Amino acid sequence: MQILQDVEEANLCVMEQGDIPHGTLRISLPVTFGRLHIAPILSDFLIQYPEVKLDLQLSDGLANLAEADLDVVIRIGNLDRSNANLMLRKLANYHRLVCGSPAYFKQQGKPSHPNDLTQHNCLLFAYSTNHQIWRFQRETEVCEVKVSGSLVANHSEVLRQVCLNGSGLVLMPTWLIGEDIKAGRLQPVLSDFQISPQTDRDTGVYALYLPNRKHSRRVQVFMDFLIQQFGNPPYWETESLACGTFHSDS
Length: 250
Known about the structure:
Elements: H1 2-15, E1 23-29, H2 31-38, H3 42-48, E2 52-58, E3 72-76, E4 87-93, E5 96-100, H4 102-108, E6 124-125, E7 133-138, E8 141-146, E9 152-153, H5 156-164, E10 170-173, H6 174-182, E11 187-189, E12 194-195, E13 204-209, H7 217-230, H8 239-242
Parallel strand pairs: 1-2, 1-3, 6-9
Antiparallel strand pairs: 3-13, 4-13, 5-10, 5-11, 7-8, 7-12
């Protein structure tokens, strides 16, 4: 297996001599993030690198890169770092916020402390068995609140839409709700707390690739392009969203 990987790596280097990336780049993207933040900039990438062709797969599962013949996989948080055969590069940060619609807050009021969330309808993202526990930290104060509500879903965009309709509060990443907050459709609360501190769900957008793609110009220019387009801090986290609580993970 290692011999085959070495041969493939050598072939990639020969193919991309002259520092001009070309050939087919096979990429796996998370469904919602890919639709919102990568699909809109793909045309710019193809214009900038006309010799590269893209083969995209949208999936939220972490595929076996070798078996699926993938060059790079983009994934968000909660990554398995135990696989020493994978290279990893951070592309951007994001944070999570508790937010609701103006209509919801007009009717139900705003929580001033995490413990107040037990009195609110919290819409839950079923990403793990402990999705009912929301964690907060403010200086030395740490809170773990068991929340509940009328909806549990395994798709973040469903929860976002129900929240926009005024039915409850959500704990969502800024890459998903940043534009809603900027436009005033959603309002963040408890912004003096750091949300979900020191959990297994890291707040980063990552690229993963096999060691035999390390010197592939196609892979490198694509990662560089995403980092440049996202910005630092990323465009979904403007000063108006920071609220004084965000900390860099770089």
